[in-house]
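Journal club side-thread
Mid-discussion, someone asked how the predicted structure for our own chain would compare to the paper's figures. Pasting it here so we can look after the session.
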Amino acid sequence: MTGFGRGEGETTLGRMVVECRSINHRYSDINLKLPKRFNPLEARIKEIVRSEVSRGRVDLTLRLDTTQEGKVQFDVDFPLADQYYKVLQQLKERYEMQGEITLDLLAGAKDLILAKEAVEEVEPYWQEMVPILKQSLREMDRMKRMEGESLGRDLGQRMDRISQTFEDIRVRFASSQKAYQERFRERLQTLLAGTELDPSRFQQEVAFWVERTDITEEMVRAESHLKQFGSLFGSQDPVGRKMDFLLQEIHREANTIGSKANDAEISQKVVDIKSELEKIREQVQNIE
């Protein structure tokens, strides 16, 4: 599900702003953009995000707006300075140059004196950060739920159409069985013209065909899966993976029904069901 959330507040370090963006993704993928000083807290920030988001790609940006100047440390690369001095001394001797090797000359050498921002301990400020972080996640979740309500209505309508199509299959199958028995009787009478048809033998053959083509079990399982799928709409827990699994099972039952029923009209209805299932499955990939 897609969403955006922003949290901000004052901390001892300055004003902190956290922004979260979520886009569709089959698995959980969390990406953080933090000031360097907060890198030690990366694992804990991801843990909080995972506690709120079970599926999707989340890009989280943390920014610290502060008027305090960062502390800067200067380091001298003495081994490099020794090399510079040695090389300059060699040049002076080789070419019999005049003058002294001065501090000004060495100080101008590249990368000899390095300035870097001092890394400040951020552990004491963790508890101040957590509420701001959670605020951004709540805002993002609110937007995702709004999208989810719209998506839920669409999925509900599609599942209703699938349920009705299964019911149409049930009615069609009942009538097709009776028609098949009549065709089977006529065919046998044609093949055995002049021969008395054994009623018991005929019933045995029909029973064998019914057992081989009966779709009752598949229909019962499909209806059960549909009910389970519908019950997930009101759940407050992550349901995306459960929905995905149930769709696979409904698809499996529909396939079996199509192959066992041996009826053109039922086969077409199975195609309609599978088409709707595929559309639903594309949407379910985005649901947590």
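Post-session note: The beta strands are 3-11, 14-23, 28-33, 56-65, 72-76, 113-117.
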